[in-house]
Structures are given as structure tokens and as C-alpha cells.
UniProtKB/TrEMBL annotation:
Record-given protein name: Trehalose-6-phosphate hydrolase
One Pfam entry name: Alpha-amylase
Gene3D superfamilies recorded: Glycosidases, Golgi alpha-mannosidase II, Oligo-1,6-glucosidase, Domain 2
Any single biological process term in GO: oligosaccharide catabolic process
Organism: Schleiferilactobacillus harbinensis DSM 16991
Family: Belongs to the glycosyl hydrolase 13 family.
GO molecular function term, any single one: alpha-amylase activity
């Protein structure tokens, strides 16, 4: 068993976490100041989203220099101090590395665009126009074509994401060498690992061609998801960088299935420690389309969780467990009740997540139940993906109110609003003007949570501590009971000696189930303060009530 099988991770979105100098932008000294807080929460691993220099078309995922820190966050010296302080708390730190693309401001791209013969000429994907048209009809993940015309080079370049984020050509051995040298440099700085951005896109299927566009999935991804050399490239990184430096890794796998994810994370393949998959966060897409007002269905969620729990165990891989991140709306707003039952809802999510097999990730603000921003005007949004989607929806004839309602439900900015530390202006995030304004007024802050023994924060602390104490969290198998039940989720995990069960009422109305199922169990976590409501043969789960129990295995 590896240390990270029982550990809990925390994702920091640095620009919204804690500002220390009043420029409205979170920074490294701010993170250092909050490390004791994270230690108190009990986490052992931090994922930091990118802090490299970047023109900021995609909040740092468009990197213009891999080997230093963006001055808005601080200096490399601040970074090293942060590492040292974190290590004193036995917290490890993962950097976010974006290897699929760079910024158009990166020196490699600036050189590459000059002509067709320079040493960087094929560090990226360049193509001529096809009959006066873009080279292929693929769709960018940020709306529009994946191809952008470059006047200088008189060719198109490929960008799966935003147009200032050209895709790197990993088939070029010189590029691979430079990237590995850059990763080795980060290892020398003392970091503990990497979160690898859209890592299953780095190998492209050549030659490129048009796609049918018959479904939302026929958008070109067949040419870049899990391409022919992706495992080879990851094995190379593992052999040269991860393994010799004892690094922890988590891959972001876009549109990957269970079998592929198992392959990436099975230790026998020497690739990644674990991976994020997204199928459970697509259950409220309509016909596979994100920018729609979606419906939540509990049986659909159960089916996806079961598929990944059972499937990844069968493939000997490892899941990274999460409900939200900087690319997703807040899960309580999305799937549950972020108003009257907000505390119960967030605790339910924690209980359901921590009972699963994998390494749980808490996204900043989840531990206090932060909810969506509910912006009412397009100008309040900063994110290009959201703004482009809004423009595209309007162009397709979606009315303003509906387009805004869709953004309220699906925009990534919902998770990017400043962290709520206390009740001073801007919730103590900054003394200046925050880069993104806070959402709706909110009574809940870290300060309140720390003063309340029944807080969401306290429940996360309990769950984080329970995982290493009970092996069944790590090695138990998985059974979803009553998969078609539309209101109550009940799953069990069993090993040789113990049974872990989770019950969760995902509805706002009380639900009664058989009390016999609770016999001989110990309550490890609960989101109501006063014990379970048992009456005769039945027990009743109140609105959004959730409980995690552990009992002895009956042979
Ligand atoms: C990942 C990041 C996201 C970014 C994209 C392109 O999905 O998490 O924020 O926009 O990759 O780098």
C-alpha cells in the first residue's frame, strides 16, 4: 500500500485563495499564511493550479515560461519557502504541469511561427489551408475551430483549447528532451509531484482528417484522446522523473473510459499514481452537451460511480475522488440543496466521497460549503470558456435569460470566486479589489467553521482521520445496493473483516428504509447532530441525511 492510498488531498486555486499584498490576486505568501489551517484540516497533499508566467488567457494554463513563478504570485524564493513550511507540516505539494500546449507567448512558439525551417518549426502542429478552409473541421473545447491562422508563418496552427494555447507536438524528440529537462529542474526545486493537465491528449493521431460532427463527441477528439504514443510518453516521464524522485502524480484524463484509466494508473505499467475522470460530472449534460440546463438523476450517478469503483479496482488502477475543481460548478449547487439544507448537503457529499475507494480531493471552499456565484450579468464572468460559450449560445438563438441561467449552473467561475475566510470586506481574501468578485452574500466563512464543532470543516477532519484508521476504506470492494432507488443512495464496501456502509438521502423529503441493515454497526460520520431516527423495523433518513457506518464482516 502506498502512503497516498490513505491520504487526503486539497486543491488550491491560488489566485482566489489568499491575497497578501492587496492587489486582488491570491499569492504564495497568502498560501504560506494558510498552511496551518490546512494542517488543522488534516490533509497531506496539495495540488496547486499553475503559477507560471502566463498572459492569462486561461488563468495560467497558457504557460509562457515553465521554469519560474509568475511575479503576481511571488518569487521562486517564496515558492521554496512555501515548500519548506508545507514539509514541516508533512504536507506534500504537487505542481500543475500543462504539457499538451503552451501559450503563444512561449519562446518555442514565437520561434516556431517564424518560418517552416527554424529549429522549433515542428514543436507545434502547423497545416496549410485545405481548399481555402481550415485544415480540419474539429471543434475547440473553447468554442469555434481548433485552427487559427498565423500571418507570420502563413499557416494554421492547432489549438484544442483557447486560440492562444497552441498544442505541442510530442512526436518531436527534441521537444521531449526539453520537457523532461524542465521537469527534472522542478524535481530539483524539491516539489513532491505533478498534476498533469489533460495528459491523455499529448499524443496525436496522424494524419489528421475531418470528422462527422454527428454527435457532440465527433468533434475531433478521436485524433487526440489516448493517441498512439501516450503510454510510451508517460512511461518515459515516469522512468526519468517520477520514479527516481519518488513523486506523486495525478493525471487529468479527458474523455477516458475505465479501461484506459486503469491502464494509466495500474502500478505495473509505471505511468501515473492516479487519475481524475469526469463521467460522474457529465450526468447533468443533455445529450452529451455541457451548455444546457441539465437534470440530475440519482440512479444515473449511482451507475457511473459503480462503473468506476468496480472497474478501476478490476483494472488494478486508482481513482482520484472529487466532486468539483476549478473547472466545475460547486457540487452542492449542482446536485443538492445549497440553501436551507446547505450544511447537510455538503456533508452528504463528503460522506459519499470519503466512503469510496480512491484518494479524495477537497477543492478549496468545499470544507465550508461554498456555493455557486449566481452571477446575473455576463460582465461578471471572467472565464473565456464561459464567455465564449455565452456568445455561441446567443448566436444560436438562445435568449439572454436562458444563457445566463445555464452559466449560473455550469460556468467554471462558480468555483473560482474568492475563498471566504471571515466577514471583513471580500471575506478576508484581499484588502484590494478581487480579480473576480465574490458571489451571493454568504453567512459561512472559515472563521465561523473553526468556532463550530458541528461544522462541515469538523466533519471533513473526522473523515480524513478515519481513512487511515480503517483499512476497509482502502481495500474494501464495492456494492451499490438498490441502484434504481431515486432518492436514497446505499453502498457497501467489504474486506475480510469489516463492512463499511454509506446511506444518503439525496432528496428534500424524509425516506424510510429497513433498520435491520444498521445492526452491529458503529457510526463513523453523520450529517445530523442527534443520531439516527429508528422506529421499530424502520429508520428514517431526514432531508439530505447521510451516514457512514462500519461494522464487522459476518462470515
Ligand atoms: C484542464 C484545466 C483547465 C484548462 C484546460 C486547458 O482541463 O483544468 O482549467 O482550461 O485543461 O489547459
Amino acid at each position: 500500500m502506498a502512503w497516498w492510498h490513505t491520504a487526503t488531498a486539497y486543491q488550491i486555486y491560488p489566485r482566489s485563495f489568499q491575497d497578501s499584498n492587496g492587489d486582488g490576486f491570491g499569492d504564495i505568501p497568502g498560501i504560506i499564511r494558510r498552511l496551518p489551517y490546512l494542517h488543522e484540516l488534516g490533509i497531506q497533499l496539495i495540488w496547486l493550479t499553475p503559477m507560471y508566467p502566463s498572459p492569462g488567457y486561461d488563468n495560467g494554463y497558457d504557460i509562457s515560461d515553465y521554469q519560474t513563478i509568475d511575479p503576481r504570485y511571488g518569487t521562486l524564493t517564496d515558492f521554496k519557502e512555501m515548500l519548506a513550511v508545507a514539509h514541516r507540516y508533512h504536507i506534500r505539494i504537487m505542481m500543475d504541469l500543462v504539457l499538451n500546449h503552451t501559450s503563444t507567448e512561449h519562446p518555442w512558439f514565437k520561434a516556431s511561427r517564424q518560418d517552416k525551417t527554424n529549429p522549433y518549426a515542428d514543436f507545434y502542429f502547423w497545416a496549410d489551408a485545405a481548399a481555402g478552409q481550415v485544415p480540419t473541421n474539429w471543434l475547440s473545447r473553447f468554442s469555434g475551430s481548433t485552427w487559427e491562422w498565423d500571418d507570420q508563418r502563413q499557416q494554421y496552427y492547432l489549438h484544442i483549447f483557447e486560440q492562444h494555447m497552441p498544442d505541442l507536438n510530442w512526436d518531436n524528440p527534441v521537444l521531449r528532451k526539453k520537457i523532461l529537462a524542465m521537469m527534472a529542474w522542478w524535481a530539483e526545486q524539491g516539489i513532491d509531484g505533478f498534476r498533469l493537465d489533460v495528459i491523455n491528449m499529448i499524443s496525436k493521431r496522424i494524419p489528421f482528417g475531418n470528422v462527422s460532427r454527428a454527435t457532440p463527441q465527433d468533434d475531433g477528439r478521436a485524433y487526440y484522446i489516448n493517441g498512439p504514443h501516450v503510454h510510451h510518453y508517460l512511461q518515459l516521464m515516469n522512468q526519468k522523473i517520477f520514479a527516481p524522485n519518488h513523486m506523486i502524480t495525478v493525471g487529468e484524463l479527458a474523455s477516458a473510459g475505465v479501461a484506459e484509466t486503469g491502464e494509466f494508473t495500474n502500478p505495473a505499467n509505471h505511468e501515473l499514481a492516479m487519475a481524475f475522470s469526469f463521467e460522474h460530472l457529465k450526468i447533468d449534460y443533455t445529450d452529451g452537451r455541457k451548455w444546457t440546463l441539465g437534470q440530475f438523476s440519482l440512479p444515473a450517478l449511482k451507475a457511473v460511480l459503480t462503473k468506476w469503483q468496480v472497474g478501476i479496482a478490476r483494472e488494478h488502477g486508482w481513482n482520484a475522488l472529487f466532486w468539483t475543481n476549478h473547472d466545475q460548478p460547486r457540487a452542492i449547487s449542482r446536485f443538492l440543496n445549497d440553501d436551507r439544507y446547505r450544511i447537510e448537503s455538503q456533508k452528504l457529499l463528503a460522506i459519499v466521497q470519503f466512503g469510496l475507494q480512491g484518494t479524495p480531493y477537497i477543492y478549496q471552499g468545499e470544507e465550508i460549503g461554498m456555493r455557486n456565484a449566481y452571477f446575473t450579468n455576463i460582465d461578471q464572468y471572467d472565464d473565456r470558456e464561459s464567455r465564449n460559450a455565452y456568445a455561441a449560445m446567443r448566436q444560436e438563438g438562445v435568449d439572454t435569460a436562458t444563457a445566463l441561467a445555464i452559466l449560473q449552473q455550469k460556468s467554471r467561475d462558480n468555483a473560482r470566486t474568492p475563498m471566504h475566510w471571515n466577514h471583513t470586506p471580500n471575506y478576508g481574501f484581499t484588502t484590494g479589489t478581487p480579480w473576480l468578485q465574490p458571489g451571493l452574500d454568504d453567512p459561512v466563512t472559515v472563521k465561523d467553521a473553526l468556532a463550530d464543532p458541528q461544522s462541515i470543516f469538523a466533519l471533513y477532519q473526522q473523515l480524513i482521520a478515519a481513512r487511515p484508521a480503517y483499512p476497509v476504506f482502502t481495500d474494501g470492494d464495492f456494492h451499490m445496493l438498490a441502484p434504481d432507488d431515486t432518492t436514497v443512495m446505499h453502498y457497501q464496501r467489504r474486506n475480510q473483516t469489516a463492512v463499511l456502509s454509506v446511506w444518503a438521502n439525496w432528496s428534500g423529503t424524509p425516506q424510510s428504509r429497513r433498520a435491520a441493515d444498521l445492526r452491529n454497526t458503529r457510526l463513523l460520520a453523520h450529517n445530523y447532530p442527534d443520531g439516527l431516527q429508528i422506529a421499530g423495523e424502520l429508520f428514517t433518513l431526514r432531508p439530505y441525511e447521510a451516514v457512514l457506518l462500519v461494522g464487522k464482516q459476518v462470515q
